[in-house]
Design a protein that fits this description.
Length: about 325
Amino acid sequence: MSFGGQEIENAASVQWSANSLNISIAALNFRNIEHLHFRYRLLGLEKEWVDTSDEMIRYPRLEPGDYRFQATTADDSGEEVSSVAEVDFHITPRWWQNQFLSWALILVCAFGAAGLWRLRIRGLQVQKQQLELAVQHRTEDLEREKSELLRAREQMRHYAEHDDLTGLWNHRIIVERLRAEVAKSQRERTPLSVILVDLDHFKQINDTFGHLAGDLALKEMGAIFLRSTRPYDWVGRYGGEEFLLILPGSNYAAARVRAEELRMAVESARITYVDRSIQITASFGVASGFPTDEGKLIKTADGALYAAKANGRNCVVSTEV
Ligand code: GH3
Ligand code: MG
Ligand code: MG
C-alpha cells in the first residue's frame, strides 16, 4: 500500500494529502493463479466486498480517519480460499481539517457575516436618515418660498388697492366699495351716507411750505379720518387733496354730526413740518339717504362740497337723496 508515494505498513499513520491510496494485491501462496480473483473492502469507507481480478486498487482522495483494508483471494466459485489479510492505517487531518477549527471558522464566518449585515443595515439607516433630513430641509425651503410668495402676493394686492402716500383705499377700490354699499343699502333698506372732503386752499399750503410739507399734511389728514370713523366705515383718497368717506347705516343727521366732528378735528390738528406749524381746514359735502345709484350719490356730495366752498370753506353742507 502506498499513499502519496509513501509506503504504508500496518498501524501506520499518515498525514492527509490529495493523493490517492494505491494498493497492489498478490496471492503469494497459490501457484495456479489464473482461476483466482480477489475480494476487498476498505472499512471506514465501505462495508460491501468488491470483487476484482485486478491486482491494483486505487482510492482517490480519502478523507482523514481510521481505515482498515481487508483483502482475500477467492476461486471461480466465489468461495474464499485464503484467510483475510488486513492492514490498519490512520489518515491524520491537516490543521485546517481539524473539526474544532472548522467550527471556529464557521463561527468566525457567521459572526463576520452578521457583522457585515449589521454594518449594511446601519449604513442603510444612516442613508435613510440623511434622505429624511434632505426631504425635511427641502420641505422647509418650499414652505419658506411659499410663505414668501404669499407675502409678496399680499404686498402686491396691498399696493394695488391702497394709496401710496396715505395708506387709505385708492380711488378704484373706494368707488368699488361705494357700489357694493349702495347695493347693500338697497337690499337691506338701511340708510347710507357719503362725505366728500376737500382740503381748503391746499395749493397755497404747497406754495408756502413746500410739496413735502403738503404730502405730510395729506398723510395726517388721512390718519385723522381713519381715527374718527367706525371699523365698518370706508375711507379712501378720492383724488389729489380729496377724500371720500362711506358711512354705511348712517342717516342724514348722524352723517352731519360726524362730518362736523371731522371738520373740527381737521381744524384743530397741528401739523409740524421741520420747525413750522401748518394749519389746515377742509370743506365737507355730505349726501345721505337711500341711494339707488353710486354715481348720483357722489354727484350730490360733490354739489354739497361745492356749496361748502362757496359758503366760505371750513364748513359742512349736507344734502338728502
Ligand atoms: P380749494 O380750497 O378751492 O380746494 O383750493 P385748492 O388750492 O385746495 O384747490 P386746487 O384744486 O386749486 O389745488 C389743489 C392742490 O392740491 C394742487 C395740488 O398741487 C395739490 N395736490 C394734489 N395732490 C397732491 C399731493 O399728492 N401732494 C401734494 N403735496 N399736493 C397735492
Ligand atoms: Mg380739489
Ligand atoms: Mg382743495
